[in-house]
Specification:
Layout lengths: L1 H7 L9 H31 L11 H4 L3 E4 L9 E7 L5 E7 L3 H6 L6 E7 L2
Parallel strand pairs: 1-3
Antiparallel strand pairs: 2-3, 2-4
Amino acid sequence: MDSQILSNQPELLKPKSSSGISYITAIIIILVLLILSMIGYVLYIKSYHPTQNASPLVSPTQSMQIKTTDLAPGIPANEKTILTIQHSDSSRERIILKSDLVAGYIKSLPEGEKMVSKEADN
């Protein structure tokens, strides 16, 4: 009786052979392993190249450039002094001014700013 019932069923409903199922299982396992390895690779790359708080690439010479302000453009070089001032945000600025005005300028610096270096301009 069972053979009669099975023979009346369409081909799609008949049980498949075990070799057909093993090929499908092997393909599924390979696809899952491929997907997991891709996810692992992405996580590995992300750990070495974080994207949070990323800043654009800056060459060392660009990051070391200091803004220069000449407050005495018409004064001869031998009468000038160059001050390097560190601002409260840790940025630095070079100020060029007349040598006899240096002491007053340093006293007038806002709180949080300080003179880092002082050199004569020659």
